[in-house]
Specification:
Elements lengths: L3 H11 L3 H32 L4 H8 L3 H8 L17 H13 L8 H10 L4 H9 L5 H9 L15 H16 L7 H10 L4 H8 L4 H12 L10
Helix pairs in contact: 1-2, 3-4, 5-6, 6-8, 6-10, 6-11, 7-10, 7-12, 8-11, 9-10, 10-12
Protein name: Clp R domain-containing protein
InterPro entries: Clp_N_dom_sf, Clp_R_N, CLPT1/2
Keywords: Repeat
């Protein structure tokens, strides 16, 4: 259990000025709220995988079935939702732009487009991780391209992200928080994509030998190695 005294000491150690301490406390409170949301989300996902109904989950949360679904089921939307992309690194923002580019003939932006964006951002840790783990050089890109819908569609003005894509990006934030990072790098997006096992990208990656366990091990070895990866991966 996190103790209030510990939080007060942590804030006090970060600044001498009372107003700076107040600003730090507000920032920490926001971070704790986000951590709390993702903590609950993690166990909601676990309960769903275990076969719990939304009615049962809602009862555990003290809300209605509909309220639980509204909070935890991503819906197709042109918006990424919370948190905003302001915590995304430059490379991660380019991945999102590249995903849009790959989806230019599609009605929606899916995890497969996100995966192609990760591969295109070749200097990112995600692309390097895939290159290290995939069964053959370029096999993931080829397999992903083979899964794209070849029939050109009329792209709507507000092109939505699929529910799987939105969930993958939500899980990317959760992975960053799990690793103690307050930025969202390409490596976190890759881990989120792998965790969204119902998405096309996760299926492709599993088939080319890239698993969440292997990717997480490699990424953490790079980030926690002698020369730690800087934000921007």
């Amino acid at each position: 259990m996190i103790q209030l005294t510990d939080l007060i000491v942590t804030v006090a150690q970060e600044a001498d000025d009372a107003l700076l301490r107040l600003a730090k406390a507000v920032e920490m409170s926001s971070q704790l709220n986000e951590l709390g949301d993702h903590l609950i989300g993690h166990f909601v996902d676990e309960a769903r995988r275990g076969g719990a109904s939304w009615a049962e989950i809602g009862e555990s949360l003290g809300v209605t079935k509909q309220a639980a679904q509204k909070r935890f089921v991503p819906k197709e939307s042109p918006e990424l939702g919370k948190p905003s992309t302001e915590r995304y690194t430059q490379r991660s923002r380019r991945v999102i732009a590249l995903a849009r580019h790959h989806a230019r003939f599609s009605e929606r932006i899916g995890t497969e487009h996100l995966l192609l964006g990760l591969l295109d951002e070749s200097a990112g840790l995600a692309a390097k991780t895939i290159a290290k783990l995939e069964s053959g050089d370029g096999s993931t890109r080829i397999a992903t391209l083979n899964r794209l819908d070849t029939e050109a569609k009329q792209r709507p003005e507000k092109q939505p992200y699929t529910s799987h894509c939105k969930k993958a990006l939500e899980l990317a934030v959760r992975e960053a928080l799990r690793m103690g990072h307050m930025f969202i790098g390409t490596e976190h997006i890759l881990l989120g994509v792998l965790l969204e096992t119902d998405g096309t990208a996760a299926d492709v990656l599993h088939n080319t030998g890239v698993t969440h366990a292997a990717a997480a091990t490699h990424i953490e070895s790079v980030v926690n190695g002698p020369q730690q990866a800087l934000p921007g991966a």
